[in-house]
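Design a sequence for this backbone.
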């Protein structure tokens, strides 16, 4: 059986149908799995079979497509049937509305009647695929508003969208004036017009991705600078502690020499008095935190030195190496600890209790972190924003925490109750 060119085009665009539908449901049905290649080709095969069986009966074919997509969405996305039907209905109503709009525009541009457009297979494909290209842009825009990118602002996204839609309109008008009126809407012109539409949509996606990559690089540079600064502070803190330890060792060595001389001369009373003085002086030396992890020790000791008035309650049970990259842990724990200490310190300055409670455990290849602090500021956990003066850099701190959590497929949770704020984080060791 020789398959006509029009049928080949319809089969090819069935593949586009599958991709658009899966993209639509991956956003609004909140699927947790990526689209699998084998599953996509399975849907494509079913779509081709439907086209072969019902090529001339468009209504019956569309009903088969709806049933196919309903069944596919039910199996693949495991969405409840009622929301699935609602989403499918919205999808096809959207295509229908935009198709009618596209036909109206085509009639005004090309001077053709609706019957003439729909009777020609290539023209009909052009109208439907134009509508679906617009559906892609609309879905991407709604997804962009639903989950704003960490790197690209909404303003730049909208600018890129407007520019590329303008290019699309100008291109259509140019083709209409230069080719269609002189060639009586030849098949080659229709196909070329279809190519321009797809190219414009691809240009939208490419431009947005390039802008996002540029913004991501800038963000990574800023994040790297913050991380390097924190690492520098950690190294300086560890270095100062090592110098303090060397100083203590040197003094203790001299003390033992003096004690030895006193005992050799049988000056027991003076030796006892000397030992008591040493014990009294040792009690005045600040106790440094030791957990077995030098990054954690440095961050905790730095916080204790910076905020000596705060009460720290520590419950730490971790192995020396718990599977999290050192720089990532530095960014995560350092930012969370700094936010907690500053909030508790503000609370203490207002005459209230200032405390920070830290629980850190590593078990079953999972890192559990909980930091609870006193606060006098009402926190909206659904719209959490930094309360610090330097909102740009400290806003990056909050985003940095989220980035590390996402990197390790982790979970974060904010809680605010009874003048306390708590952040709970669970990370899976890589």
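Sequence:
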């Amino acid at each position: 059986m020789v398959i006509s060119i029009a049928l080949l085009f319809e089969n090819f665009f069935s593949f586009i149908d599958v991709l658009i539908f899966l993209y639509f449901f991956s956003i609004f049905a909140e699927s947790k799995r990526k689209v699998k290649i084998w599953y996509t080709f399975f849907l494509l095969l079913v779509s081709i079979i439907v086209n072969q069986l019902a090529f001339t009966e468009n209504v019956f074919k569309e009903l088969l497509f709806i049933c196919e997509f309903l069944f596919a969405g039910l199996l693949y996305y495991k969405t409840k049937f009622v929301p699935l039907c609602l989403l499918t209905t919205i999808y096809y109503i959207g295509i229908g509305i935009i198709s009618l709009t596209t036909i109206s525009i085509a009639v005004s541009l090309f001077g053709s009647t609706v019957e003439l457009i729909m009777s020609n297979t290539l023209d009909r494909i052009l109208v439907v695929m134009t509508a679906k290209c617009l559906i892609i842009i609309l879905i991407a825009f709604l997804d962009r508003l639903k989950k704003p990118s960490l790197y690209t602002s909404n303003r730049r996204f909208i600018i890129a969208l407007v520019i590329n839609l303008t290019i699309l309109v100008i291109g259509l008008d140019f083709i209409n004036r230069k080719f269609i009126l002189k060639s009586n809407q030849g098949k080659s012109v229709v196909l070329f017009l279809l190519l321009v539409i797809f190219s414009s949509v691809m240009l939208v996606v490419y431009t947005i991705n390039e802008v996002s990559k540029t913004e991501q690089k800038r963000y990574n540079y800023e994040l790297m600078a913050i991380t390097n600064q924190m690492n520098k502070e950690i190294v300086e803190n560890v270095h100062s502690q090592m110098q303090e330890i060397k100083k203590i060792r040197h003094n203790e060595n001299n003390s033992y020499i003096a004690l030895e001389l006193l005992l050799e001369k049988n000056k027991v009373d003076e030796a006892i008095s000397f030992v008591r003085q040493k014990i009294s002086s040792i009690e005045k030396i600040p106790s440094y935190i030791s957990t077995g992890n030098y990054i954690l020790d440095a961050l905790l000791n730095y916080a204790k030195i910076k905020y000596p008035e705060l009460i720290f309650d520590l419950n730490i049970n971790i192995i020396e190496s718990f599977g999290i990259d050192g720089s990532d842990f530095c960014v995560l724990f350092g930012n969370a600890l700094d936010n907690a200490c500053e909030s508790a310190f503000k609370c203490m300055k207002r005459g209230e209790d200032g405390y920070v409670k830290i629980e850190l455990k590593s078990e079953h290849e999972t890192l559990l972190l909980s930091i609870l602090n006193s606060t006098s500021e009402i926190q909206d956990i659904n719209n959490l924003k930094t309360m610090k003066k330097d909102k740009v850099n400290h806003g990056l701190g909050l985003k940095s925490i989220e980035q590390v959590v996402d990197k390790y497929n982790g979970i974060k949770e904010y809680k605010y109750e009874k003048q306390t704020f708590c952040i709970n984080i669970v990370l899976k060791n890589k």
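The first strand starts at residue 311 and ends at 317.
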